[in-house]
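Lab meeting minutes (informal)
Scribe: AK
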Amino acid sequence: MIVGIEYSKPLSLERAPIPGVVVLDLPVHGDNRGWFKENWQREKMVELGLPDFSPVQNNISFNRTAGTTRGIHAEPWDKYISVAVGSVFGAWVDLREGDSFGTVFTTVIDASRAIYIPRGVGNAFQTLEDDTAYSYLVNDHWSPDARYTFLNLADETANIRWPIPLERAETSEKDRSHPRLDAVEPMRI
């Protein structure tokens, strides 16, 4: 069994301060062999209140070292995010046009938590453990022609308190060069 994971808790849903963002606590069943969970179970999750978003693609980001930081990216599709191995500090910023533009939400995700992110909400994460596998279902296929919206990881307005300071984190040059919030054109949904 993995230390830190709460086993056999009930499936439950909590709404975050960003409209449409939903955090799910997932039942994880563990024994001396390891653990098992239903990561996505459409009928149960829709009944609980999660949108029926019809995923068409599954992506996995493998991250070798703790402190790997990716984002903040908003895409024109919805995502269901989970962690198969390890844990992440997740950060989301509403980059949609409207009153909630700029609203920030953060939480830790491990094998026993998942999060639903609607299109237009910027997504970022920082790994808290080596060899973390971050997985996400999306309801549209990736396209180089799609309209994406980006925010700088170090934006002062969002003021995300990364557990590992960005100057010590593993990031990409591209993510470090995204615009600050005052220069972001909100995504129209």
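Next up, CB showed the second protein from the same session:
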Amino acid sequence: MLASIHIYPVKSLGGVEVHEAHVEPWGLRHDRRWLVLKPDGTVLTARKQHRMLGVKADPADDGGITLRGLDGSTLHVESPGDGTLAPLSLSRLDSVRLAASEASDWLSHQLQEPVRLGWLDDPRRRTVSVAHGGLPGDRLNLSDAGPLLLTTQASLRQLNEWIVWTATEGDEEPPAPIMMARFRPNLVVDGAHKPFAEDNWRCAQVGDVGFRFAEHCDRCAVTMIDPRTGATAKEPLRTLARHRRWGHKTWFGIRVVPLATGMIRVGDPVWAA
């Protein structure tokens, strides 16, 4: 069963949980169509700027977004269809369109450093790398490597059990359970699956929409930041490194590519093989 759906309109900013979503060739509609740029064109992510996780972005009916700041302020931003093209340093994409200066000023204030807000006008301009499981014709939004990230509740439950065992072995107080939000998935599946069964899925179908496995997802230090508080800790990477480490990386979740377009909804049945 599809337990939850998550959309992150701006890369590395906080997102929104939705009841239904339209699957497009490059991912969920409204997901990761915006990003934050430093003045030199470098893409800024939460790996470097932890405050980004506390700024929220909601998709708006007109195709724009509504930003909600750490200080409680909000700002509606329209999609800059005729905005200036700005070069950037992102694999397989050479430019994005800049949002109005008001948006950049507002976001610079929230992040306490000068930034610009950019928008991907046409995801058909970017492809999924062969190194990340891409096939000819696969398109990509502004995600790092794949159109969607899928995780399972069974795997998270197992991980939290391992984390308790790790703490007990070290005579530490067990931390609060890790929330799935740490991993920033698009699709969360629950049901009678064994932990990490998704490692072996070659394909999955959610409702009427099929997906193809692209690759396992390696995890970075962003998972150690609590998006609610901004506090950092050793988990979950410490425990994942004990149980889920190969190729000098730690792994949780899988990246998938849509095989069709259509609507998916929380509660939809999920078949996988």
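CB comment: The helical segments are 101-111, 153-169, 237-243.
No objections, moving on.
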